[in-house]
Amino acid sequence: MKEFKGSIDRLRVNGERLRQTMETMSKIGRTKGGGVQRLALSDEDKEARDLFIKWLKELNLEILIDQMGNIFGKRKGKRDDFTPVITGSHLDSQPKGGRFDGVLGVMGALEVLRTLEENKIDTERPIIIVDWTNEEGSRFAPAMVGSGVWSGSLDTEWVYNRTDASGKRFEDELKRIGYKGEFPCKSFPIYAYYEYHIEQGPILERENKIIGAPKGIVCLHWYDIYVEGEANQVGPTPMEGRHDALCAAAEMILKVNELPSKVKGDLVATVGEINNYPNSRNIIPDKVHFTVDIRSWDDQLALEAWKILEKEFKAISEKRGCPIRVEETWKVEHSPFDKRLVQRVLDNAQRLGYPSLYMVSGAGHDASYMNQVAPTAMIFVPSINGRSHVEVENTKWEDCEAGVNVLLHCILQSANER
Ligand code: HGY
Ligand code: MN
Ligand code: MN
């Protein structure tokens, strides 16, 4: 390996190696439509973790797995007593998800460490790469539980007892894949956290920018709604007097969709998941479960919006004689990132010649929780056609490389600050 002689400013990552690493990782859980399915704590998640650890070992990093299965790889600093710079994201995916969401931030961080290693560049501070457990929250709700427990916002036992649709417990699945580590899942002092991620929206592409520097992430509020009705034979039961849980739910779901137009501002509201029982074409449904996801930069607006919705749900429930139960499943406040680090992202993008944009993240990330315990910033690159959480999710390789070059220099600058 050659010693890097030039000015550190000229250092760049190896885009071809990044691409090959991404393509190797995307083979794990690959779906017919060209996406990936690596649900948290599934066999595919285990396979991806095993491969990630193999790559960490090749870099002689000190590896640590904590009680939530978060995987940390530490590269020593000249001053190993200094607080570290952490960078990473997640390897788990949505069902039929994309090849870039989360994994680009972990493989990008890996490429940074490979670049430092091969150029024999040491930093003052240690650098830690991380894969956070269950960022997606699709199989086990809520999302971002690995970073949520680590940052002290979620309780280990509560997460351990979360179950998936088939009733499997989080802790049992974590043990089954061999990633329930010994190390306590709790925060230690860190100097800075950078998370590199695809934008998952249309703005960078529309504005012809390559690097996004989010000022922060919106709040995320998740609710679970359970509607009770009365099952009966669809034929002889008169329409009058039915308590059809699915019709009640359908009316409620439309209210979710209409909510943002009532409250103005940046609010978005979505029902993504619905389960109907007994789900037989000739039985009037008597149980429906559906989810509500509300997001806004303004936490208060999101809470007020929910109040409106809850009232509308109650009115529909009474009108149709279908009692409801509401679970306030999860809330993460909006997270304004560290202004100095966000400016660093913009400055590095400019110095490296990449057009950049100061923006907001509408997607949740582990950075939402990390921002509660350490100076945090994110680096975005464009999603082609603004698509994500779909098999066609895609980002140009040259943009992926550009993002990692910005990540490299942000990390170098922070890791060399005394
Ligand atoms: O929900 C989100 O925005 C993220 O994918 N967990
Ligand atoms: Mn993600
Ligand atoms: Mn995601």
Characterize the structure shown.
By secondary structure, the protein is of the alpha/beta class. The protein folds into two domains: 8-218 and 334-415, Zn peptidases (Aminopeptidase, 3-Layer(aba) Sandwich), CATH 3.40.630.10; 219-332, Alpha-Beta Plaits (2-Layer Sandwich). 34% of the residues lie in helices and 20% in strands. It has a six-stranded mixed beta sheet with strand order 1-2-4-3-5-14. Bound molecules: (2S)-amino(hydroxy)ethanoic acid (HGY) and manganese (II) ion (2 copies). One manganese (II) ion binds at residues 94, 101, 136, 389. One manganese (II) ion binds next to loops.
Task: Please tell me the CATH architecture of the largest domain by its name.
Answer: 3-Layer(aba) Sandwich
Tell me, what's the shape?
A: elongated
Spatial ordering of strands, largest sheet: 1-2-4-3-5-14
In N-to-C order, the SSE pattern is HHEEEHEHHHEHEEHEEEHEEHEHEH
Question: Total strand count, please?
Answer: 14
- The CATH topology annotation of the largest domain reads as Aminopeptidase
Whole-number total of structural domains: 2
How far is the N terminus from the C terminus? 27 Å
| Helical amount | 25-40%
The CATH C-level class name of the largest domain:
Alpha Beta
Question: Which band does the percent of strand residues land in?
Answer: 15-25%
Helix count from the secondary structure assignment: 12
Superfamily (CATH H level) name of the largest domain: Zn peptidases
Ligand inventory reads: (2S)-amino(hydroxy)ethanoic acid, manganese (II) ion
| Rg of Cα set | 23 Å
Helix/strand-derived category reads alpha/beta
Largest sheet: 6 strands, mixed
Segments where pLDDT lies below 50 for 5+ residues?
Answer: none
